[in-house]
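Homework help board

Subject: predicted structure for assignment chain

Our instructor gave us this sequence and asked us to write out the predicted structure in token form, then describe one feature. I got the tokens but I'm not sure how to describe them. Can anyone check?
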Amino acid sequence: MAMKSSELNVFESYEERLFQVLSPEGELKTSITGKIDESLMVKMYENMLFTRAFDRKSVNLQRQGRMGTYAPFEGQEASQVGSAMALALDDWMFPTYRDHAAAIIHGQEMFRIFLYWMGHIDGSISPEGRRIMPPAVPIATQMVHAVGTAWASKLKGEKNVSIAYFGDGATSEGDFHESLNFAGVFKTPTIFFCQNNGYAISVPFEKQSASKTIAQRAAAYDMEGVLVDGNDIFAVYLAVAEAVERAKRGEGPTLIEANTFRYGAHTTADDPKKYRDQENLSKEWRETRDPLTRLQKYLMKKGLWNAEKEQELLNQVQQKIDEHLKKAESYQKADPLHMFDHVYAEAPWNINEQKQEWKQFIKKDVNES
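My token output:
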């Protein structure tokens, strides 16, 4: 699964090292005895079903004008749910704007995620006892923060890790290289978790990287590199669990690349049909590599799941989602002036000037309406 950089021939085919536990047909390829028990398997499926329902609801809310632009994740549930379930409650999470499933599983409240996409400042608040940072929209900046937090934990003698989520596009940013370099030098307890869904908005991976994989770049920073089937929740969970244990033993960071695919658009403001064969690609991945279907097949073969349980859970999920949506929509409408706050300890003159201009604009708009 993992490889030490000292043992790695960088010219070796990483494709041959893809870590997969559960095949797309729902068959085990390797033993998981003592690693994943039946109750955990069922919980994994329930969590993926839950987060998929949340994602679909969010897309519908945006289309209805009840939320702003939204970044869907359907198709990437195994990567997000599997990785988050391998964390301890006191581990730090640094998500991007697409990692709502990971945040939910790590303890973020759904109504706050709704609030975030409604433009409300309270959507960035982490629950008491959780260490979930606000979603990072600037590409790769959260990776630097994750390394700094992990280094602080190490200096304090704490036994926790920081996980930074990012996409394949982030690996072209300087923050990616700076983060991995610093983490490698100081052996920080950081997990770099890349969800390679094949596209950085409209740019396909092959036009962005000369390296065949992202995982192989670990060799340059003398850290572990893992290439995992991102639609296999068993493989993702075990890869991250191993990285957590490695970090807590003081053996430094891990770079994990989870190969997956987003069925929908980059965001609800994007039209993927302009840059890829959206219909056929999504159809192929849904029919042959869907993360929920894969695990469902396995659970049904073992007698752990059936259609009745599925419908019962879906009913409970929809009820819970609706309750959180009602709570989010009961909040006072987001104040656009908050965009000028909470960035600088003391706002510079140009920010204050822009804030005053916006106040006048809002006042004029209200008077005219």
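Reply (TA_rk): Your tokens look well-formed. For the description, you could write something like this. The longest strand covers residues 190-196. That's the kind of observation they're looking for.
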